[in-house]
Inverse folding.
């Protein structure tokens, strides 16, 4: 057993982000990798106003037997966030000793852009004060360095893969090869490896 996850229990993962960040593709990759690894998998999604930059949330549960796709507050073993405000928004769904993996990217919600509210300060510090396991990375900078800022989601999957020892690394790469179009496959394989290194 590593990081509190073992193969005789259900593992609950929440992926959250903003429309256009590839959150749903990432959740599909996670779910398919879990299936290939022999787990029962359930998944649910809330798209919100995804096309307008609204919140996008996907819940993935896997284990020997999963009865419900929904994760209640305080039940997520892992929270993966593509944007730091979304990490804060969904943090109360994480177990007290759960793992939070977040990009430190800031995408202003419409309410902030319109001047109706203020973007919170020191979000990463707030998360670290409440949860002992918070990994924060400048994932956008890493993706941009690889040549395409849109591969943030695959870098985050690489980080998740390194911190989730239930799956073989080759299973992740196999699924990525199946789900990513050939013309951008090599870039995304590099993105996964970069996340694994981080």
């Amino acid at each position: 057993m590593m990081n509190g996850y073992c193969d005789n229990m259900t593992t609950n993962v929440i992926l959250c982000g903003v429309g256009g960040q590839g959150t749903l593709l990432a959740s599909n990759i996670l779910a398919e990798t879990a299936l290939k690894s022999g787990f029962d998998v359930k998944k649910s999604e809330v798209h919100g106003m995804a096309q307008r930059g609204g919140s996008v949330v996907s819940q993935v549960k896997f284990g020997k037997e999963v009865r419900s796709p929904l994760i209640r507050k305080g039940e997520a073993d892992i929270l993966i966030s593509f944007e730091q405000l979304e990490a804060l928004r969904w943090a109360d769904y994480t177990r007290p000793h759960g793992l939070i993996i977040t990009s430190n990217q800031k995408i202003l919600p419409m309410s902030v852009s319109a001047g109706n509210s203020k973007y919170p300060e020191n979000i990463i510090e707030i998360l670290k004060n409440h949860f002992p396991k918070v990994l924060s990375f400048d994932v956008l900078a890493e993706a941009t360095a690889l040549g395409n800022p849109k591969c943030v989601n695959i870098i985050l999957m690489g980080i998740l893969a390194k911190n989730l020892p239930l799956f073989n690394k080759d299973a992740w790469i196999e699924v990525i090869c199946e789900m990513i179009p050939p013309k951008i496959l090599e870039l995304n394989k590099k993105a996964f490896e970069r996340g694994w290194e981080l």
Residues 11-197 form a domain with the Pyruvate-ferredoxin Oxidoreductase; domain 3 fold (CATH 3.40.920.10).
